[in-house]
Each structure stands twice: as C-alpha cells, then as structure tokens.
Specification:
CATH architecture of the largest domain: 3-Layer(aba) Sandwich
CATH superfamily of the largest domain: P-loop containing nucleotide triphosphate hydrolases
Strand content: 5-15%
Distance between the termini: 25 Å
Number of strands: 8
CATH topology of the largest domain: Rossmann fold
Radius of gyration: 26 Å
Strand order of the largest sheet: 3-2-4-1-5-6-7-8
Number of helices: 20
C-alpha cells in the first residue's frame, strides 16, 4: 500500500539531511521532489501544487529547535498536511433509523458487491447490527447469485425478487420486508453504471428518492487512480453521497485517489478494502494513513486487529498456563491461528514502525507458518502437551509425517523451549502479562 510513494517521499526528505537549518533554497528543492512524487502517485496536479505551497509556507515559518533536525521537522509538517488533505479525522457512518438504509453506488467492476458483503459482515460483528442485503443489480449476469454466495459466507440473508427487473420496486419492497422481519440495517447493492449513461444515472437517483437512504456510499477502485477521482465528482453531482469507499488498496495502486478524492468532492473516505477476504475492510483514519505513507507504521490499527481476535477467557487460561510453565504446542498453534486471522502477514508487519521498509523486498505469503503448523500437527496429543518427551525417534517420525527434516523439527522445539522459558520470566516479572510467542 503506497509503497512507491513512501519510497519517493523518503528520498525527498534525504535532501534535507545534514542541513543545519531550513532555508528557502533547500525547502524548495525538497518540495519540488515531493511534488514529483505526488504527481507520480497520480495525485491531481492542482492539489499537489497547493499541497507543496502550504507545506513550504509552514516550513519557512517554523522555528527549528536545536533538538529537532530540519528533515524531521519537514516529515512532521508533511504528515500533518497529508492528514489534513485526506480529511483530518475519521468520519463514521450514520446508523440512525429503524431500519438504517445504506445505498451502495459505483462504477462497473469497482467492487460494490464484494464491499456490500464486507460491510454487512462489519455491521454484524462489530456494530451488533442485524443486516439485510438487497440485490438490486438486475443487469449483470450472475450478480444476484454472487450476492447470495457472499450472503452465505457472512451468514446474512439476501432479499431478491425473481423476475423483477425494476430496482426501485425491489428496494422499496426490501425496506418493507426489513421492517416486517425486524432487520435494523438494509444494505442495497446496485448495478454498476457509467456517469455518462443518463438512463442508469436516473435509475439510481430514483432508487435514492424511493428509499431515502440514511447513508449513500460511493465505491471506487483505487487502482484507477485519477480517473476514479473524476468519476467520483460526476456521481456526487447526481447523488450527493455521504462517503467514499476505496477498494483494492492492497493492489498495485499508486495512491493518488486516496490523496485527491477528499479535496475534489469534499466527501470523507469512510472505508478501505485491503484484500479479498470478507474481514479485509478497515475504517479510514487519515492520520493513520499518513503514518503508513511516511513509513511510521500503524500500531493503533494493528492493536485493533489483535483485539478483534482477543478472547478474554482464553487469555486468562493461557496466562495461568504460562505462569505454571504449562504452555504447550497446542497453545502455540492456537496463537498462530489467531495471528493468521488478523490478515496478511506482510501487511501486519508493515504496521510496525520501520518494518515496512525492512520487509519491502521480502516475499512473505499467507503460508509463512505452514511448516510450523505441519510439524505440530504431526505430533500426537501427548507429544504436544509434553514437549519434553520428544526424543530422537519421535522427532524423526514427526519430520517424516510433516514433510520436513529432523533439523527443522529440532529448531522448532528449541525455539519453543526458549520461548516458553522467556514467557514464564516475563509473566512473573511484569505482573502476569502474556507475551506472544516468538515465531521466527
């Protein structure tokens, strides 16, 4: 996410390294490079120009403390202005109403249907809502079937009307059905349309007028760059939507849409899609995104992801086992499963300050723990519970069963033993704090 932009900005700030103070000359040189970096990321030219002018004005007006290097001050100023450019703060959805009606709009292929599934999953698991999905894309072949499959995945019902080709009537009937059956949130998935297709634009306006949604979200494929921003403007003129959703931010995107769209349409980015899985949806926080763009990581989002998988009762049990030095391979693999649920390993690591750059050229896939899991799964329940009984013959059998080698099994057992000792020490010395195992 924003890898190229991050690298370019880092190189720009290096122009100030070694400088004793900020001057008009070295600031101009640095910001000229920053502007090029923004334009290469497909940021709107006027926005890039205005951005660098505002940064320059503030930088030249700053009194640099002796303890702060000019390059560090410039990073701070650029961070603050990036945050401002992307909206300043997180803007939540309007979930008032009974039921709350949310209308999803966007271009063909922007990822509306997948986002609709992610959204109802988010509303159900994190907001405690009882959602209903509505299939109003009556034109794309298999669109309704796709929504049904997604509905099954997230265990949310899908309202459809076989043979009805009128999205306005379907949407109105779905809201009535939600009221009748007690669903408190209705998410309406509509057909993809082009801003130049007047008939289709009139149709979605009619759907809006018919159900008076509390929230209209415009879904944008972030890989389309500046075109996405122009399209967002056209749709906003017709729908006056409440927020933007950027999908496919995990792809090879240059990031220009995220940086430009707020300034162009004056509507907040509310969500970003970061993968194919139904839980790969994050609320958009401008300050956290600025952190990531500037290579500072995103610890807050990482902690939130961890908390989503955090089970207090299981944590208490684990805490007692660690204190008694009873942490075993069954607990170990359980912790691995919790980490895997949090998302892509490389993406998680990039949220740790400094790790994004360190892992840039490393190919870390979702099977990073496969070898460890294979070894542990090849152990008997008794062996997992009592690692001390793992003699030579048992290790040889485990290696053969897991498709690994005896040295690999030995290495895992040794690391596990060291981790267990460290966890016991940490628990007893830090007031019973549970430490995650070191899975090198």
């Amino acid at each position: 996410m924003f890898e190229n932009l991050s690298d370019r900005l880092e190189r720009s700030f290096k122009l100030l390294k070694g400088q004793g103070r900020i001057t008009e000359i070295n600031v101009a040189e640095t910001l000229k490079d920053v502007r090029r970096a923004l334009l290469d990321a497909d940021v709107n030219f006027k926005i890039a120009k205005q951005f660098t002018e505002e940064v320059k004005e503030e930088a030249l007006g700053q009194k640099i403390l002796n303890a702060v290097k000019p390059s560090e001050m410039m990073v701070k100023i650029v961070h603050d202005h990036l945050t401002k450019l992307m909206g300043g703060e997180n803007v939540a959805m309007n979930l008032k109403g009974n039921p709350t009606v949310i209308l999803i709009a966007g271009l063909q292929g922007s990822g509306k249907t997948t986002f609709s599934g992610k959204l109802v999953s988010h509303l159900k698991t994190k907001q405690g809502k009882l959602p209903l999905l509505v299939a109003c894309d009556v034109y794309r072949p298999a669109a309704i079937e796709q929504l049904k499959v997604i509905g099954d995945q997230v265990d949310v019902p899908v309202y459809t009307e076989e043979g009805n080709m009128n999205p306005v009537k379907i949407a109105k009937a779905a809201v009535k059905e939600a009221k009748r059956k007690g669903y408190n949130t209705v998410v309406i998935d509509t057909a993809g349309r082009l801003a130049i297709d007047q008939e289709m634009m009139k149709e979605i306006e009619a759907v809006k007028d018919a159900v008076t949604p509390h929230e209209i979200l415009f879904v944008v494929d972030s890989m389309t760059g500046q075109d996405a921003v122009n399209t967002a403007k056209e749709f906003n003129n017709r729908l006056d939507y409440d927020g933007v959703v950027l999908t496919k931010l995990d792809g090879d995107t240059r990031g220009g849409a995220a940086l430009s769209i707020r300034s162009v349409v004056d509507k907040p980015i509310k969500f970003i899609g970061t993968g194919e899985k139904m839980d790969a949806l994050d609320a958009f926080h401008p300050n956290r995104m600025a952190d990531r763009i500037l290579g500072m990581g995103d610890i807050v989002s990482l902690v939130e992801k961890a908390q989503d998988q955090y089970d207090q009762e299981e944590a208490r049990k684990l805490q007692k086992k660690i204190a008694k030095n009873q942490f075993d391979f069954t607990d170990f693999i359980s912790q691995i499963q919790q980490i895997k649920k949090m998302g892509n390993i490389k993406d998680l690591a990039s949220m740790i300050p400094g790790m994004g750059k360190a892992m840039k050229n490393l190919d870390v896939d979702d099977d990073a723990f496969q070898g460890i899991e294979a070894i542990i799964n090849s152990m008997t329940p008794t062996e997992r519970a009592n690692p001390t009984i793992l003699n030579g013959s048992r290790r040889k059998r485990i290696a053969e069963g897991s498709g690994t080698t005896v040295p690999e099994v030995n290495r895992l057992v040794k690391q596990f033993d060291e981790t267990r000792k460290m966890m016991k020490v940490m628990t007893s010395s830090k007031g019973k704090r549970v430490q995650m195992p070191n899975m090198r």
